[in-house]
Amino acid sequence: MDSKTDMSGEALTSQQVKEAYFTASQRQLVWTRFKKHRAAMTAAMVLIFLALTGIFAPFLSPYDPTMAGRNKDYLNGAPTVPMFCDKNGCSIRPFLHTVERERSLKTNFRWVETVNEDKRRYVEFFVTGSQYKLLGFIPANIHLFGASEGSIHLFGTDASGKDIFSRTLHAIWTSLKVGSIGVFISFVLALIIGGISGYYGGWIDSILQMITDAVRTVPAIPLFMAIAAFIPQTWTAETRFFFISLILGLIGWPTLARRVRTHLLSERNQEYVLAAQLCGASSSHVIRRHLLPSFTSYIIVDLVISFPYMVLSETALSFIGLGLKDPVNSLGVMLQNVTSADVLMNYQWYFIPVIFFIALVMAFVFVGDGLRDAADPYSDISK
Fold it and tell me: What's this model's pTM, rounded to 2 decimal places?
């Protein structure tokens, strides 16, 4: 009797699990499966961390990456890593050793760096520095850390003495903004064009599909080369930034539009759509409130997957000189500095932004893969 009770209890528990799956919302189902994807969860945490460092880059970085903070006495300087102990003992406060540079006849008048271990420069936190606007509108001048004397360069400096650490954090945020604007533009165009094409069909669908195919066949690099030739040199960095974001969005919508069209073609004759039409709902209302929400998870997956391609496109264009340029800090602009053999042989710290670029792109890829696997939550109910 007890065993039957135990068995019935187990069956009831299994039934409750299945009922929970079938009664849960689409968002809950996707989140349940996404949490089981360890690589995607790790990538999501990395992505959140990189996004936060980009958003709060003015506060986290010790210097303004463009003008203020330039160190003319420390050009192409190696990274300065804080420490707690040296030959003179240990300290609770992190400190740096003073690096002295001079030209030597033995090295054909090249710069020779010597570390003065008897002189400490302590790292200070919440220091007053250059003015900035946090989140774009909050004026502030407090930076997370700085040095009591001289400068601190965690990632070293470039040929003009600008702090690479500060530039890297701002570059992450710039690349994310370019990708966000491009994805938003392509998302809106894809929903409008794909929704109209899939819902109405007929000659409207044929015309819109011809336009979609025409956009898909446009080669990206030659297009940008042609556009770059006509961009006025008098344009500001901000104008160039929004122009590049606009172009990336205008050529990135066809794939998502095709998927929206395909889904609407298969769903427009369903009973719930017919019921909404009989109730007097307009076409825009049916598309917006009934058809598009039926595959929201798939749209989110497409957006996340397309995001790294937007970042890669901006980086590639800036890398070959067709995208953003100084004084704008983006990952593509910073990658331009690692193309020379001199940097490869003597200034390896120039490659530090490359690590952040790879981490950003890979984080988006893994998150996109996790969302794609979670977009069909019912596939593992029987497991």
Answer: 0.76
Query: Which amino acid type is present at position 126?
Result: F
The pair of structure tokens assigned to 344 is 């490869």
β-strand partners of 102: 112
331: its two tokens: 């990952």
* Residue 322 dihedral angles phi and psi, to the nearest 5°: -100, -10
* CA atoms of 296 and 291, how far apart (whole Å): 9
Q: How many CB atoms within 10 Å of residue 184?
A: 13
CA distances from 295 to 109, 238, 264, 299, 332 (A): 66, 36, 10, 7, 34
**86: which strand partners?**
89
Residue 310 has which token pair? 């937007």
User: From 3.30.720.120, 3.40.50.720, 1.10.4030.10, 1.10.3720.10, which CATH number describes the 169-380 domain?
Assistant: 1.10.3720.10
Residue 71: strand, helix, or coil: coil
CA gap 303, 249 in Å, rounded: 12
What distances in angstroms separate CA 220 from CA 127, 332, 361, one per listed residue?
45, 17, 20
Give span(s): CATH 1.10.3720.10, the chain.
169-380
Query: So what's the pLDDT on residue 19?
Result: 64
pLDDT for residue 360: 87
Of 353, 373, 332, 368, residue with least CA distance to 154? 353
Query: Could you tell me which residues come within 8 angstroms of residue 89 by beta carbon, excluding any fewer than 6 positions away?
Result: none
Measured CA to CA, the distance from residue 225 to residue 8 in angstroms comes to 70
Encoding tokens for residue 11?
A: 């069956």
Please name the amino acid found at residue 95. Answer: F
The mean pLDDT values, 10 residues at a time, for the chain of 383 residues are: 43 57 65 82 91 89 72 74 82 80 62 71 85 82 83 82 87 83 85 85 87 83 74 71 78 84 81 82 80 73 78 73 71 76 78 87 85 65 43
